[in-house]
Design goal:
Elements lengths: L4 H25 L6 H12 L3 E3 L3 E4 L6 E10 L8 E12 L8 E10 L2 E5 L38 E4 L1 E12 L6 E12 L7 E9 L2 E9 L2 H5 L5 E9 L2 E11 L4 E11 L18 E10 L2 E11 L2 E10 L5 E7 L5 H7 L21
Parallel strand pairs: 5-7, 5-8, 6-8
Antiparallel strand pairs: 1-3, 2-3, 3-4, 4-5, 4-6, 8-9, 9-10, 10-11, 11-12, 12-13, 13-14, 14-15, 15-16, 16-17, 17-18
Length: 368
């Protein structure tokens, strides 16, 4: 009896479809929530802290970009902490591309956090709640010999990680200093960072508040790939509004991770310095003000040239250099059309020799 090749192919196709259908049925029948206890156990073994997965785990597999979502997650604080949880969030989502995994690349297409509430704090001795207990000691292993030159190390390099989109909604980050008892809170109403690929520019936008003082930021940064392995200066083009001030930064950074190779044009302008009190307490009520210049670094020094500054009626122009040494110093070459000492002294709270409004500052009498 002869069996045609086409018949064999049809049989194989039917078998493959049956296997796939069975696999789909098996995967669909798996309830990931049954593994929540195991996940929490592994995290606690590694950190010494309890992880609570109070909500459900959702998994979407049958796509080239599978996703996972977890509801109501919390992570325990240090025993001495000011509240039970170090971190908690309403929902966590992640979508991962499958095909890049074949090239040992991890590409997270979208990462979402809804209502994350993170508390970083220190105790009176300065120990941070981010310092976890040591994981259980593993059995000692022999240290492998260093591979010879030109020979690949076992295991290969770490996979390349890229993230195309990050979204944060209604987030809160709080820092509490256990020594000073001072608390700083950053609330993010909305944060987004998007890039088409690891080689594409990153568009950033956020709005929120710093200690209840509102701020907004938008702009573009260089590709994420350039942060991991810089091949050319990293571009920056950011505009922010905070404390009544408009802040603009544009240019490049040759080594962004080390903040070296600065080539930036920076400007700050506002109506009065007092509006910046939430960000820099103690500033006087004087203005309008503006500051603009080109910032670069030479060795360990920071150079600001093409400086153009004004505060109230006073102005400055020129260049200056911040010399980093055991005792930092500033070298400056500045000119001015007007320095109104009376206005500056009045804004700073007056003092000996302060002139009345509209007059000139009088020199202090020298002892005879």
């Amino acid at each position: 009896m002869r069996i045609r090749v086409s018949t064999i192919v049809k049989i194989l196709i039917v078998v493959v479809i049956a296997v796939i259908a069975a696999g789909v049925a098996i995967v669909k029948s798996i309830d990931l929530n049954q593994y929540k206890g195991l996940i929490a156990e592994k995290v606690e073994a590694a950190t010494g802290r309890k992880l609570t997965l109070a909500g459900d785990i959702y998994l979407e597999l049958f796509t080239l970009q599978p996703s996972v979502a977890i509801d109501d997650v919390s992570f325990a604080n240090a025993p001495w902490g000011s509240r039970p949880e170090m971190a908690k969030l309403k929902r966590l989502e992640a979508r991962v591309a499958l095909l890049p995994l074949l090239s040992k690349q991890i590409e997270i297409k979208r990462f979402v956090m809804v209502a994350p509430d993170i508390l970083l704090e220190t105790d009176a001795a300065g120990k941070g709640n981010w310092e976890f207990g040591a994981a259980k000691a593993a059995p000692a292993k022999a240290v492998p010999a260093k591979p010879a030159e030109g020979q690949k190390a076992a295991g290969g390099a770490m996979p390349e990680l890229t993230v195309n989109e990050v979204d944060i909604k209604d987030g809160t980050l709080t820092y509490r200093d256990g020594k000073t008892k001072k608390t700083t809170t950053i609330a993010l109403d909305d944060f987004s960072a998007k890039a088409k690929s690891s080689d594409s520019p990153l568009a950033v936008a956020m709005s929120g508040s710093y200690n209840k003082a509102p701020f907004r930021l938008k702009g573009t940064l260089g590709p994420l790939a350039e942060l991991q392995a810089p091949k050319k200066p990293f571009p920056v083009d950011i505009e922010a509004e905070a404390g009544g001030a408009t802040i603009k930064t544009s240019g490049t950074i040759a080594q962004p991770a080390a903040a070296k190779g600065l080539n930036l044009n920076v400007s700050v302008a506002g109506k009065t310095l007092a509006d910046l009190a939430a960000f820099a307490p103690g500033l006087p009520a004087i203005g309008p003000y503006h500051l603009a210049g080109h910032v670069a670094d030479k060795g360990n020094d920071i150079v600001v040239d093409h400086l153009d500054a004004a505060l109230g009626k006073s102005d400055l122009a020129g260049d200056l250099t911040l010399v980093k040494a055991n005792i930092p110093t500033i070298r400056a070459n500045l000119t001015s059309k007007l320095i109104d000492l009376a206005e500056l002294q009045a804004a700073a709270g007056g003092g000996a020799g302060a002139a009345p409004a509209g007059g000139e500052a009088k020199p202090e009498a020298k002892p005879g």
